[in-house]
Amino acid sequence: MRYELYYWPRIQGRGEFVRLALEDAGADYTDVAREPGGMDVMMELLCSRTSPKPPFAPPFLRAGRQLIGQTALILDYLGRHHGLAPDSESGRIWALQLQLTIADFVVEIHDTHHPVGAGFYYEEQRAEAAKRSRYFLDQRLPKFLGWFEQVIEDNPAASGCAVGRRVTHVDLSLFQIVEGLRYAFPRAMTRREPQLPRLLALRERVARRPGIAAYLSSPRRIPFDEAGIFRRYPELDRFEA
Amino acid sequence: MRYELYYWPRIQGRGEFVRLALEDAGADYTDVAREPGGMDVMMELLCSRTSPKPPFAPPFLRAGRQLIGQTALILDYLGRHHGLAPDSESGRIWALQLQLTIADFVVEIHDTHHPVGAGFYYEEQRAEAAKRSRYFLDQRLPKFLGWFEQVIEDNPAASGCAVGRRVTHVDLSLFQIVEGLRYAFPRAMTRREPQLPRLLALRERVARRPGIAAYLSSPRRIPFDEAGIFRRYPELDRFEA
After folding, report:
1. Is the model's pTM score more than 0.95?
2. Could you tell me if A64 lies within 8 Å of chain B, comparing CB atoms?
3. Residue ranges of the domains in chain A?
4. What's the rounded Cα separation, in Å, for the pair B192 and B28?
5. Distances A91 to A76, A85, A168, A227, B9 between C-alpha atoms, Å
6. What is the pLDDT of residues A129-145, one digit of tens each?
7. ipTM of the complex
8. Is the CB of residue B102 less than 8 Å away from at least one CB of chain A?
9. A201 part of contact set with chain B, CB < 8 Å
10. Which of A52, A119, A128 has its CB closest to that of B116?
């Protein structure tokens, strides 16, 4: 089956978590909005009232007759069909729970530069962004990253992965989180990384996987920039602790 | 099986979406942190490194040997075990997708009064909150509510519910969304409601369900106040359109 991924064509954004899973799995897919005329197709679909009904927002995935929205749910689906999710029901629920916690983290990362709302430019909310980023770097980033470090440490399988014995969609997403935070907050991450040995080892391991390594060195990998979730504004990379 | 719900004892918050499902289902449950000494039990569990590992944050549910975090995932679980989810796999995924879209909406509702971060009091971010609320009421509230109105309208089963022929956890959560928004933004909702006939009819229908009606008139239902997600700050209930 050929999947169709629908996401904004010029940014990594939330779609990147899905791209990483598709690429790692070697899945056959079209990144629709990056094809000629594809953006029109996506916008038409988003506004349509067909059945199955299109999701509230990108990313979404067409898998046969299904149209699946919400990043975590897409990853749960791809995980189950491509050996990137635990086999047991309880393992699968735990993986999805971790993926949803990553989604919460992503909202907070995004909101460091857009606390007043995505409808305003960053330049219109620089003061608020500085305040929110300081709080984020002092309180939230250590809490989230420390918790994921513990998740890996406390995994009963002691595999170095977040869940079970094998790499899952959760590990691929944690790779992207580390990459993105290193891009956006290099000072804060340099300070924090010595406390995250397991998360960083996992990041290395994911980067070496054949599908991921090939993808990262291909033109399909869009570089980080100041239009996505992870943005490098040096004035926001300031913290107390 | 007796469930254990873990959530902050004095607010509705995200836990309320779970309480509504448990009450509608007539499930046997303890709201642990509302029992004497229960708050200590919850905090100890949150900081513990037992297996299964506790979630990142409340609410979470103990169901036998499972510990499930993330509101949407708890509702998917309860839905499947208490006739509050569609029977088909694709229906269940759609319901979970809708529930995750509600979760996204809840983040935006919360952030109207806390745009700079949950670590600061509202009084410390009133100016930013006014800016964000205006944007929320003009752009985001109509977009989310209009989309859910369409979901009900486009449901192929034409049942008046969001998914399939029967009431699901999604409908219970949409009830709470309407209740909360009416509390927090009465002016904006009065203006918007004529365009939401299906959503309001669904709200009435849910309110009349025996489990819900009994719960709402019981002391177990915590009133809305200015400590939860939906807060009434009249200065934020201002909009253009």
Report:
1. yes
2. no
3. 3-81, 89-209
4. 38
5. 11, 8, 11, 35, 29
6. 999 999 999 999 999 99
7. 0.96
8. no
9. no
10. A128
